Amino acid sequence: MPFYPNDTNPLPQIVGLKSVVMENESDPTTFDLQVELGIFQDEVTVDRATIAVSLRQASLSMDLEGLDVVEKSKYGIDHTPSKLTVKTTSESTIQTSVEKTRAYEAIVSGELTPLTQGLKGSGSRSGKQVDGATATLKENRETQADFYPVKAVGNDTWRVTDAAGANLDRTYLNYDKLCALRMKPARPNHVATSLSVHAPQKYINAEIVRDSRTFMSRVGSNKEKVINILVAKGLHEATSQVEYDGVLTFSVSTTEYEG
Questions:
Q1: Positive or negative, the Cα torsion across 152, 153, 155, 160?
Q2: b/e for 115-124, b at 16 or more Cβ within 10 A?
Q3: For residue 216, with 0-12 CB atoms within 10 Å meaning exposed, 13-18 middle and 19 or more buried, which class applies?
Q4: Residues 6+ apart with CB under 8 A from 214
Q5: Tens digit of each residue's pLDDT (9 = 90 or more) over 79-126
Q6: What is the pTM of this model?
Q7: Using one digit for the tens of pLDDT, what is the confidence trace for 237-246?
Q8: Phi, psi (5° rounding) for residue 101?
Q9: CB under 8 Å to 144, separation ≥6 — which residues?
C-alpha cells in the first residue's frame, strides 16, 4: 500500500476516527479515501475527575497535500435538483356561501368537503329548492426533504448531526468513501491526507460525575460555568498539544504517500 495511515484517538470511547487511502481498481490514476467514524456518549477520566461527555454536533475536516478532490466524488452532497416535487394535502380552511345546486354538484365531484352546512328552508336532495349553503375546503402544502447525518459543507468539511437533534451516539462512517483523490498535475514533493474531528465548546455536553479534588466543592454561584470551562480545557489538554481556543479536536487521522 503506497499510503501509510496514522490514527490518533486519545478518547476512543467518545470519538474514533480511522482512514485509509486505496487505489481505485477501475481507475489507477485516482485513489479512494475511506473513513471510519464513530461518535458516542460515554465517561472519561481527566485529572482525577470522571466526566460524562456527549456531542450534539461535530465536524470532520480534511486537509490535502499534493492531492486534489475528484469532481463530483464527495460523500454527503446535498445537491438541490433543478426541479422539486411538492406534495399537497388538506389543511388551511376556506369557507364560502354558495348556491345550493352548485355546492351539491361540487360535493359530488369531490371538489369540496362539506364539514358544516347551514341550509335555508327545506327541499329535495337535488338542492334545487334550497337557495344557499355553506361548504368548507381544507388545503395543506407539504414538502419532502432528505436528511444527511454526514453532510458535506464548505472548505472540505463534513457536518455530523442527528436528525432529531439528539446527542451523537453511533457509527456514522463505516469505511465509506469520503471522496476520490488524484495527484496534482505537477508531481509534488509531499503527498498526504489529514482528517480531524472537532467541535466548539457550545456543542459539547460535559458533566462531572465524580471528582476527588476538594476545590470543586468550594466553587461559588458560577459553579456550572466554571465547571464547563474546566471540563473543556481538561478535555482539550487530554487530546491536543496546542493552545485552547474554544474548539476541541478529538481525533486526527493522517496518511502519507510513499510510492
A1: negative
A2: eeeeeeeeee
A3: middle
A4: none
A5: 988 987 777 665 555 555 555 556 556 555 555 544 444 444 444 444
A6: 0.74
A7: 666 666 777 8
A8: -60, -45
A9: 85, 87
